[in-house]
Amino acid sequence: MTSSAVSTSLEASVLGDASPSKPPPSDGIVLRPARLSDIPIMGNLCTDAFAPDPVTAYLTPKAHMYREDNTQQHRQGCRRRFLNTRNLSIIACLASDPSTIVGFGQFSRLGDDNGAKQFVRDRGLRERLWIYVLCWFFYFYHIVENTLWPDRITDKARMKELESWVADDNEIYWKPHPERSVRWHANSIIVSPQFQGKGIGKKIMLEGLKRAQNERVIMGLTASVGGEYLYRKVGFELLGTFSHRVPGDDSEGGGVMIWYPEGTNSKN
């Protein structure tokens, strides 16, 4: 069986560029490193981008009733990834108004090779110590937040079911292949619905791929049905479809994808 996407609170990739006939990215969009203060906007972008997804409807059937609960989940997920020394978070904003964030990408550097260690070292000791402090602060902050404003939208049984599906896909596509453990992984590529179809998601992805190309390592991701075609346009190949799909979703396509850097023999 196949699935069209992954959990809104687990790792997911949405290119957000569903109209390939629309114009390429405007020079009016600039990229910059994400800041902690960007997290609330990133959470809102996730809520809007994932709203029509069938997996969202399956996992959080009451999301349309309690938007803030949905945004809180996304906000916490974005923050946890941001506060990881192996994470690269990129913001896309308007050049004319840098406060207007129109998309973002979050990538993780996996593996225990020299490239992964160097990426962590490049952040500097002071930044790593600050991240460590913030991790603990937000660990308890999230506990308090979830206690005061408990989740009213998630079907916990379905979420547990989806986690097992994700684990199944990891067992199929990643764990049996040690050579794939050293990679960049695109966790989320999100673009505001109002700015989709302008190549912004592609622009964010290419920035992440530059890292992978320079390090000569692969990049992996999970693609929605609509995202698969667009990821193929930047060189990704489909390893295989998802092992499961949510009930009632009859769409075809999407799955686990991989990108190989130029000038390597990674396929072998």
UniProtKB/TrEMBL annotation:
N-acetyltransferase domain span: 120-262
Region (Disordered): 1-29
Gene3D superfamilies membership: 3.40.630.30
Tree of life domain: Eukaryota
Chain ranges passing through the membrane: none
Record-level Gene Ontology MF annotations: acyltransferase activity, transferring groups other than amino-acyl groups
Compositional bias ranges of the Polar residues kind: 1-11
Sections of the chain in a coiled coil: none
Cross-referenced Pfam families: Acetyltransf_7 (PF13508)
PANTHER family (alphabetical): GNAT FAMILY ACETYLTRANSFERASE, N-ACETYLTRANSFERASE DOMAIN-CONTAINING PROTEIN
Name of the protein in its database record: N-acetyltransferase domain-containing protein
Provenance organism: Lachnellula occidentalis
